[in-house]
Design a protein that fits this description.
Oligomer: single chain
CATH class of the largest domain: Mainly Beta
CATH topology of the largest domain: Jelly Rolls
Radius of gyration: 40 Å
Shape: elongated
CATH superfamily of the largest domain: Galactose-binding domain-like
Low-confidence stretches: 191-203
Distance between the termini: 160 Å
């Protein structure tokens, strides 16, 4: 059957229409529905984003407020002690008088802290002697110190043509709670002790003690070398008799460094020149710097030289040679400080006596404040251990 041209055109039109309808219903409409879903999801994401931005802005404001509050609390906390020891109080009291013609004849400390340790409160009664200007400068040094120290009481006595004498009471206050917000104060004093030396009962084993079963093997006693003096003929034209002023037997010394990064400690050793003990000082300068100093400081018992002396001598045990300098710091009766060098370098091992002439400018009586080991420059040796014994002076032969 022949299809007319008109019918053929109609069939072609119907076919094209069917294809377009299928494209619209099966492709276009699903895509439009997908677009609507995506637009709805996008709107939800935009809302979540806006909500998150609001929360982040609120959090940033809270963090800013917290930072500002912490800065304000740190500024307030910087005026107070968070911790304080009696040794640090002693060092502070002495540091306020550094370079002043002012001497102390006695100190008494009193702990007034609460049992709950919610606050720190110490009092120090200090007997002093000096002139008016020195006393006023001392009080200014206390007042301008970056931590709050209260001058609780001041008693001054004087007589015609004599120095001022009296008593000053200092009160140290602090709060342990400020340690969270304040920058730690430069540590003035550090020490280290051996636990077995402070055991309450001599029959109680120290920590780390191990009981060894009885054995038939022969056990030798520990060997502590003693210095053997060589016999020599004395040249009496150059002979200087020596007088011991410190034997390091009591262990009443402590360690102080000139930088808070330096670590070290002082203890007693049975390796000695004479007596029962010597003082052992170990330290670590940690890193090279222009000037590093480790000090063995004499504690409660001052080392005094009551009359004019010609020479100061000290026995030093060196475990190895180094570029360290060794010397002593002397404070005379006018409060003037003298740094006396005993050795410009350590060029020996084992025991050796080092000595130097006493400065002629010293006003007697004077006091040996400390023994120092000094490293100079960035090539200095960073660690060291030395033994000290028999601090002696030579007096003029009458």
């Amino acid at each position: 059957m022949r299809i007319s041209k008109r019918d053929r055109n109609l069939l072609i039109f119907l076919l094209v229409f069917a294809l377009l309808a299928a494209y619209y219903f099966f492709i276009v409409i699903p895509q439009e529905e997908k677009i609507v879903e995506l637009e709805t999801e996008l709107d939800l994401k935009e809302m979540a984003k806006t909500e998150m931005e609001l929360k982040m802005a609120s959090l940033n404001n809270l963090n800013k407020n917290i930072t500002e509050l912490e800065a304000a609390m740190a500024a307030s906390a910087s005026d107070y002690f968070s911790t304080l020891t009696q040794e640090e109080m002693l060092m502070l009291i002495g540091s306020f008088a550094e370079g002043l013609p002012m001497t102390f004849s006695g100190m008494t400390f009193m702990d007034l802290a609460t049992p709950e340790m919610t606050q720190i409160q110490y009092q120090a009664d200090v007997n002093f002697e000096g002139d008016y200007e020195a006393l006023m400068q001392y009080m200014r040094n206390v007042r301008t110190f970056d931590k709050r120290i209260l001058i609780k009481d001041l008693v001054v006595q004087t007589e015609e043509d004599s120095a001022l004498t009296g008593r000053i009471k200092l009160e140290f206050n602090g709060l342990p709670q400020v340690a969270t917000y304040s920058v730690p104060m430069v540590k003035l004093v550090s020490d280290q002790f051996i636990a077995r030396d402070v055991t309450q009962s001599p029959f109680s084993p120290y920590e780390g003690f191990v009981l060894v079963e009885e054995t038939t093997e022969f056990i030798t006693e520990p060997y502590y070398p003693e210095y053997e003096f060589a016999e020599e003929t004395i040249d009496y034209t150059d002979y200087r008799p020596k007088t011991q002023i410190q034997g390091f037997e009591e262990g009443n010394t402590f360690f102080v460094a000139n930088n808070e990064d330096i670590t070290g400690f002082v203890t007693r050793s049975k390796t000695k020149v004479a007596g029962g003990f010597s003082a052992e000082m170990s330290f670590d300068f940690v890193t090279g710097r222009e000037h590093s100093e480790a000090n063995l400081v004499f504690d409660t018992t001052p080392v005094l030289i009551n009359k004019q002396a010609d020479y100061l001598g000290l026995w030093v045990y060196a475990y190895e040679a180094s570029n360290h300098k060794i010397g002593a710091v002397i404070i005379d009766s006018k409060g003037k400080e003298f740094k006396v060098e005993l050795a410009s370098q350590v060029d020996w091992t084992q025991w050796k006596e080092i000595e130097t002439p006493m400065p002629v400018e010293i006003t007697y009586p004077c006091m040996i404040q400390r023994i120092y080991v000094e490293g100079i420059g960035y090539e200095q040796k960073l660690t060291g251990k030395y033994l000290f014994d028999q601090l002696q002076v030579s007096y003029p032969i009458q």
